[in-house]
From TrEMBL:
Organism: Clostridium luticellarii
Pfam family, any one: Trp_syntA
Reactions catalysed according to its record: (1S,2R)-1-C-(indol-3-yl)glycerol 3-phosphate + L-serine = D-glyceraldehyde 3-phosphate + L-tryptophan + H2O
Pathway given in the UniProt record: Amino-acid biosynthesis; L-tryptophan biosynthesis; L-tryptophan from chorismate: step 5/5
EC number: 4.2.1.20
Subunit structure: Tetramer of two alpha and two beta chains.
Enzyme class per UniProt: lyase
Keywords: Amino-acid biosynthesis, Aromatic amino acid biosynthesis, Lyase, Tryptophan biosynthesis
Protein's name according to its UniProt entry: Tryptophan synthase alpha chain
Active site location: E49, D60
Function statement: The alpha subunit is responsible for the aldol cleavage of indoleglycerol phosphate to indole and glyceraldehyde 3-phosphate.
Length: 264
């Protein structure tokens, strides 16, 4: 069983919602990435997204763009991230998902990339710039190697939602707002109605992301979804850390607060 399926099954038995934090691999460096992943899991993270840094991340706001730039300036490459995941897998079986832009996969080689994902222990892929019309080959390759393609839907998807989630595996990434990623103080989308529409087309878990920045927001939206995704607010804390110990302490506190919000 894919680790994502197993995790959601375990959470359902306990009546809990998934906490899915996002960080950029290699920010501030790859060794610290390993420690951040382990710190997040120990503090309550259920599934972890690792962003593969990219020079033109169209779906991301300034916070994640800056983290990608820092990682790229440090010389982070895909093959190094694969090795980092192998190091993580020596210490934990927490589900791991890459957020990666299609151009990076294309340049690396599609089958090579997905085969290496499977080999190092990646459970799923989120590809923001992959058109639905182009996903057939990646889906088939993912099925061959046991790596899920996680679909993204948005409030503007409307009549396309049914097509986007058809045959989906793992979970559906439900974008909460129109626009790019970034911490927000409020979300104006009618989340209840939006989640109702998505669930009418699929019964796999729905995780809500984009803009969620606090435990209070996580608690507010948890009744309508199966998981909460938090990225920019977490990356802000990593960027503000004075040293590795400060970063890890801040990450642990924030993840603990978010998880407690989901348990309220």
């Amino acid at each position: 069983m894919n680790r994502i399926d197993l995790k959601f099954s375990q959470l359902k038995e306990k009546g809990e919602k998934a906490l899915i934090p996002f960080i950029t691999a290699g920010d501030p460096d790859l060794r610290t990435t390993v420690e951040i992943v382990l710190a997040m899991e120990s503090s309550g993270a259920d599934i972890i997204e690792l962003g593969i840094p990219y020079s033109d991340p169209l779906a991301d706001g300034v916070t994640i763009q800056a983290s990608s730039n820092r990682a790229l300036e440090n010389g982070v490459k895909i093959f190094k991230i694969m090795d980092t995941v192998k190091s993580i897998r020596e210490k934990t079986q927490v589900p791991l998902v890459y957020l990666v832009y299609y151009s990076s996969i294309f340049k690396y080689g599609m089958e090579k990339f997905i085969k290496e994902c499977s080999g190092c222990g990646i459970d799923g892929l989120i590809i923001p710039d992959l058109p639905i019309e182009e996903r057939k080959d990646i889906t088939a390759m993912g099925e061959k190697y046991g790596v899920y393609l996680i679909p993204l839907v948005a409030p503007t998807s409307k009549e396309r939602i049914e097509k986007i989630v058809r045959g989906a595996r793992g979970f559906v990434y439900c974008v909460s707002v129109n626009g790019v990623t970034g911490a927000r103080n409020s979300i104006n989308t009618d989340i209840k109605e939006y989640m109702k529409i998505v669930s009418s087309y699929t019964d796999i878990p729905r995780a809500l992301g984009f803009g969620i920045s606090s435990a209070a927001m996580a608690e507010k939206f948890k009744p309508y979804c199966d998981g909460i995704i938090v990225g920019s607010a977490l990356i802000d804390r990593i960027a503000e850390g004075k040293n590795k110990e400060d970063i890890l302490d801040s990450v642990k506190r924030f993840i603990g607060e978010l998880k407690n919000g989901l348990k309220q």
